[in-house]
């Protein structure tokens, strides 16, 4: 380990707020998952629990682990953070179908108090239906990605820790919205036909691909903080940027292409006609026609 790397690690401190929030979220989910599983054994299988916990672990690696100590001195490390917050953690968390387990795991006094009133607030529910429209999801995710990589905004996040946290929050929340129409976590319903989702993913890949191409082939470093920095991990500032751009390009493409291919294969495997009397084909997500129990009944 180089001297500078050791100095950076020594200056890093554990973000207690992030770690505490992730631990509480994991605890609420696990408690709720066990309660739901006790009432309805096959409603939320174990692989969804694993997906959710791996998603939380991805967030921890991005902003709660020692990796975060290098994000303001290494562009490639910063891009690893962004990939984890944009393309890894959100789909995994949504695959965990978090709504029901977390609601069942949260203490009753929270849901019976102000928390429950907020969740039942009609304007908030209308706003939720609006922001989960696929067109809105794509727009807000693309604007957040491109907007925060504008040099002025990027530099603001590098030089101000509160703004850096805002940047990461924007990336994560807008990416949750982007992946929402693709995963369709319980109890959401499809807003667009299934055949449109591979197209949605392809179009969603374009802003990040264009940004990654620019960063990879640009002959200068557009971010002054990184341009003025000294080499780290054996890279010059420009080489570090090229590495980060290439990583963003390749890993980002894979993150969008793989689910698009899986969706296409699934669509091609569906039967052309349904047997008489069959209402439709249920997508592979949590659906239980007998699930009419309230939270109190599950608990």
Tally of helical runs: 15
How much is the average pLDDT? 84
Give the topology string: H per helix, E per strand. Answer: HHHHHHHHHHHHHHH
**Main beta sheet:** none
| Helix percent band | over 70%
- Give the CA-CA distance, first to last residue: 50 Å
Number of domains as seen in the coordinates: 1
- Rounded to an integer, what's the Rg over CA atoms? 21 Å
Can you describe what's shown?
This protein is mostly helical and 299 residues long. It has one domain (15-271, 294-298). The chain has 15 helices and no strands. It has helices at residues 3-11, 16-39, 46-64, 75-95, 99-105, 108-111, 114-119, 122-131, 134-148, 151-159, 161-183, 196-217, 224-227, 237-269, 295-298. It is globular, with a radius of gyration of 21 Å. It starts with a helix and ends with a helix.
How is the topology of this model organized?
Blueprint: H1 3-11, H2 16-39, H3 46-64, H4 75-95, H5 99-105, H6 108-111, H7 114-119, H8 122-131, H9 134-148, H10 151-159, H11 161-183, H12 196-217, H13 224-227, H14 237-269, H15 295-298
Helix pairs in contact: 2-3, 2-5, 3-4, 4-11, 4-14, 9-11, 9-12, 10-11, 12-14
